[in-house]
From TrEMBL:
Cellular component aspect of the GO annotation: membrane; plant-type cell wall
Keywords for the protein's UniProt record, in alphabetical order: Signal
Compositional bias annotation for Acidic residues: 472-485
Name listed for the protein in its UniProt record: Heparanase-like protein 1
GO molecular function: beta-glucuronidase activity
Amino acid sequence: MGFCLSFLFFLASIPIIFAQDVKYGTIVVDGTMTVAETDDNFICATLDWWPHDKCDYNQCPWHNSSVINLDLSHPFLAKAIQAFRHLRLRIGGSLQDQVLYEVGNLKSPCHPFRKMKDGLFGFSKGCLRLDRWDELNHFFSRTGAIVTFSLNALHGRHQIRRGVWGGAWDSSNAYDFMNYTISKGHKIDSWEFGNELSGSGVGASNGPWASAWVGESGGAYNSGGRHVSNTFINSFWYLDQLGMGAKYHTKVYCRQTLIGGNYGLLNTTTFVPNPDYYSALLWHRLMGKGVLPVGSDASPYLRAYAHCSKGRAGVTLLLINLSNQTDFIISVRNNLTLRLHVEKKIQRESSFMHVLKRSLSWVGNEASDGATREEYHLTPKDGYLQSQTMVLNGIPLELTENGDIPRLDPVHNNVNSPIYISPLSITFIVFPNFDAPPLSRGFGPVGTRRFSALNLDHSHVSLPLPENNESSCDDVGDDSDYELN
Ligand SMILES: *[C@@H]1O[C@H](CO)[C@@H](O)[C@H](O)[C@H]1NC(C)=O
Ligand SMILES: *[C@@H]1O[C@H](CO)[C@@H](O)[C@H](O)[C@H]1NC(C)=O
Ligand SMILES: *[C@@H]1O[C@H](CO)[C@@H](O)[C@H](O)[C@H]1NC(C)=O
Ligand SMILES: *[C@@H]1O[C@H](CO)[C@@H](O)[C@H](O)[C@H]1NC(C)=O
Ligand SMILES: *[C@@H]1O[C@H](CO)[C@@H](O)[C@H](O)[C@H]1NC(C)=O
Ligand SMILES: *[C@@H]1O[C@H](CO)[C@@H](O)[C@H](O)[C@H]1NC(C)=O
Ligand SMILES: CC(=O)N[C@H]1CO[C@H](CO)[C@@H](O)[C@@H]1O
């Protein structure tokens, strides 16, 4: 044991050898006001209509992931949705305007989509059978999904030329379909008319949809980029989009797709969660709806977003995209604001050293003197950015033997200790109580070791401590019984 400890201390001191070029920056979060508010369920994912023979660039990445043939009995699928307690699902996509529903006096037979050379998007009209629709609704109800359904808005209209449609919309099929749905007691949260093709002309009228909403965003057109959209590196983009979207008044952000294409949150064939799935889940569990202003002169490579915490008092920070060669060491101050103090440039170490140092920095440190914060550090497996496995606090996120979503446990650190963040990683930090009493100058044991190892001047780290003030995050809303894990 003694040997172990001194070995760890030895490792901790190694970065000194590489240290160079210290520079400081500050991130300030103002807890006294919100700049925007999202819907309670900001995270959303889509189910699409693309059939298995939708192909781009010589690959056909949809398999059986369409609304019509997705395997709803797959245990991973239900568990992945249930982990959110309530996940918003949007059913739609390019083909939605060509969908007919097997209700009322539908005059044509109910066939699924077929390839058709001169069809819109290369496919014929397709039909949703009512028994399938019932089955889908039982699935939604069983998994707690909150569903938005995009109705066909071109039925009865004809194409005059590319992208321009004439004639009146025949709404009878959509109408009968809604009536059927309601009469069966199926709970659809909202109906949407028309996708990007028919524009916003028909328009949604209420719910979060009346306001800004990113309907379909997968990160790459035409089914997503293989080796990118389904790997860790995509989470830099995805979480940054979520952060930006929330800040600029987006109420709900729908990720194309939950499953299907190369950009699914779940792998289309194995149903195993991709890294972005865990990014979405952590956001959903941690980030509340109040968006707080963040000021940063830390580094252009450090993107910072702050929200009120979800279902509890306090503030949660999302920090992403550190440069590929800077280690950030951050300390926290609170004016009712946090001051995150940065940084220390460290020459790139060998990947072996890197892994050791990462595991080391995540050794949890239960504070003996008061409040702790929660930290969720996300990195790719083996440091490989295109890994399909995300690592949380040093532990690869893999389904349990029963196919359950693994626990997403934070490490706890004393709120007074500095935060260590590795290059090219993503971190959620939950400050349990934004109105924490003025912070003392000392650091916790881990922090002390790090800071002395890196030889930082403490006088630059501790800032004057302004008065406490009211936090705009005190109201934790209806979600106060929200449980993690
Ligand atoms: C889709 O599912 C059917 C059975 O329902 C199966 O025969 C077929 O091979 C599957 N296709 C793909 C592309 O997975
Ligand atoms: C709505 O559906 C119910 C049950 O299927 C049916 O009895 C009723 O006539 C329908 N209403 C309209 C206006 O179509
Ligand atoms: C699904 O997972 C398998 C096995 O890891 C992988 O080969 C495949 O590329 C993945 N598919 C997608 C669309 O991510
Ligand atoms: C992340 O940093 C790289 C350079 O290291 C930059 O090209 C990229 O735009 C940054 N991405 C985000 C989301 O900030
Ligand atoms: C960091 O990124 C820059 C620009 O993307 C690249 O030129 C450089 O080689 C990278 N450095 C390391 C150590 O990976
Ligand atoms: C909080 O700060 C504002 C502006 O600085 C001030 O007007 C207000 O009185 C303060 N509230 C409390 C409770 O100190
Ligand atoms: C109460 C208080 O001092 N609030 C300040 C905290 O910091 C932000 C950003 O610098 C200021 O805008 C607030 O006025």
